[in-house]
Backbone:
């Protein structure tokens, strides 16, 4: 959920953006990270662990733990907590290891 | 790219170092991996005790904005969204913006990457909804989103209670504070007062956190048995570790000091590490409070400025003496054990490399050992 009235801080975000998560269209504020934009829409599961297939989400919100990986505009393994959401951005959850040896990576 | 002084990290320590270096006429580049400056001050809405040279309490976020303004008005070249990822054989520093990687050639580096929160492991700690206390604080204050509605706070130090208070002010219900020690760690009357209606479980741990895709149930193990509660948020406040990767990259020697947060680089009274081109500042040099974080940035900058000839020896010594005095005063008052550990680290390093102590340090440090 978005916090519209913060108890001590002035309003920070004005502009709205529309982006997509697993092809679903969602609204967020310009200036928020992808992780926060998803949380604003009550989406907290951002992917699944590769071995036991357990749900993963934001843990540190600070770019240090790598728990919040998603795919953004086709680029796999992007930290959603340190990337700002953009108009039209296509985000999908991280369900497995990226195919680093795939053709899209040139080998 | 080429410069006199390269600062890694745009938190309070790095900004304070960069502003000091710029004022003395050095060319400075400051690199930060984030899309905005301010480091961890960006989510700290609490007030700090008066800072060196001031008598007023100041909000963390306001202090951050103030430093950013000063920095942006200076000649420092600021590179946001740039990460230090390595070094070249000639010790140039490798930086990337995610697309291209390039070298920065500098005469001295001041490395101030800050600290990271420690995790705490219990069954279910990886479920969405379990996060560090700092993550919850970032989400409400920086990002303006609610991370959950019903929270369990793990840990009872000042920091955990401060975050619990901020969550509460945003409308989150604090269901419980869980502490494995036999009493609350915080002794801050104001914070304790704010939490007076929250159930506190002492000598207790989290037995399990469960939920299918997201957290919805927490079981707490207490001396009186197991308590089950509905909660969609667990905040872990388990302390901080100095961030050491950039120092490892630069081949700096490390030492272990529990009171300073664990493993961290060795450094001398000038805040210079075992790699003479690298100075250290901020929480990376030992977990402390905001006053010392800012002062270490200044002391490190003065060391680099003196070595590069931007400041006369006499002037540098005089300034360092004042800054060390302030640092010692604040840290002894707010965190005596931290100051002792810091002195120990510095003395150990001086002994190891056979480096004499400047007079200014003996003066401020004397009390820590005789007392
Ligand atoms: C989530 C969190 C919450 C905190 N909350 C509090 C609090 O409420 N109260 C308190 O007293 N302390 C808190 N702290 C401790 C914090 O370390 C200090 O408050 C203070 O911000 C330390 O200042 P600093 O300049 O040393 O580090 P920081 O403020 O952390 O700044 C370091 C900067 O370096 C950048 N950086 C790191 N590595 C690299 C790299 N390789 N390349 C480029 N840039 C890099 C980071 O992006 C960051 O901006 C918190 C820490 C964290 C992690
Ligand atoms: S949540 Fe830890 S890196 Fe994003």
Residues:
């Amino acid at each position: 959920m978005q916090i519209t009235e913060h108890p001590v801080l002035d309003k920070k975000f004005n502009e709205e953006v529309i982006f997509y998560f697993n092809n679903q269209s969602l609204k967020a504020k310009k200036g928020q990270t992808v992780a926060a934009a998803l949380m604003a829409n009550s989406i907290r599961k951002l992917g699944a662990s590769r071995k036991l297939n357990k749900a993963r989400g934001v843990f540190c919100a600070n770019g240090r733990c790598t728990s919040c990986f998603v795919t953004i505009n086709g680029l796999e393994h992007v930290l959603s907590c340190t990337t700002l959401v953009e108009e039209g951005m296509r985000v999908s959850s991280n369900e497995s290891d990226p195919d680093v040896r795939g053709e899209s990576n040139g080998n | 790219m080429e410069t006199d002084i390269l600062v890694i990290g745009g938190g309070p320590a790095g900004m304070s170092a960069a502003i000091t270096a710029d004022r003395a006429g050095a060319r400075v580049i400051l690199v930060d991996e984030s899309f905005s400056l301010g480091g961890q001050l960006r989510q700290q809405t609490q007030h700090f005790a008066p800072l060196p040279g001031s008598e007023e309490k100041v909000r963390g976020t306001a202090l951050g904005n103030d430093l950013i303004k000063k920095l942006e008005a200076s000649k420092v070249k600021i590179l946001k969204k740039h990460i230090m990822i390595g070094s070249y054989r000639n010790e140039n520093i490798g930086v990337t913006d995610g697309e291209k990687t390039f070298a920065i050639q500098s005469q001295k580096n001041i490395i101030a990457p800050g600290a990271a929160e420690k995790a705490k492991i219990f069954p279910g700690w990886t479920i969405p909804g379990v996060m560090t206390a700092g993550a919850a604080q970032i989400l409400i204050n920086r990002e303006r989103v609610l991370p959950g509605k019903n929270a369990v706070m793990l840990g009872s130090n000042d920091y955990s209670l401060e975050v619990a208070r901020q969550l509460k002010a945003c409308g989150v219900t604090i269901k419980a504070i869980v502490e494995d020690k036999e009493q609350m760690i915080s002794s801050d009357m104001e914070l304790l007062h704010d939490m007076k209606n929250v159930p506190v479980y002492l000598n207790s741990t989290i037995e399990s956190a469960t939920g299918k895709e997201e957290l919805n149930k927490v079981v707490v193990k207490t001396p009186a048995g197991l308590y089950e509660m509905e909660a969609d948020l667990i905040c872990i406040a388990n302390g901080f570790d100095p961030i050491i990767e950039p120092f490892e990259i630069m081949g700096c020697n490390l030492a272990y000091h529990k009171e300073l947060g664990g493993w961290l680089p060795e450094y001398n009274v000038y805040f210079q590490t075992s790699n003479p081109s690298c100075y250290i500042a901020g929480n990376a040099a030992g977990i402390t409070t905001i006053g010392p974080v800012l002062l270490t940035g200044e002391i490190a900058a003065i060391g680099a400025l003196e070595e590069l000839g931007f400041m006369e020896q006499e002037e540098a010594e005089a300034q360092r003496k004042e800054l060390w005095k302030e640092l010692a005063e604040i840290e002894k008052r707010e965190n005596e054990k931290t100051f002792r550990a810091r002195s120990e680290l510095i003395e150990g390093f001086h002994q190891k490399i056979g480096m004499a102590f400047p007079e200014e340090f003996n003066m401020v440090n004397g009390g820590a050992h005789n007392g």
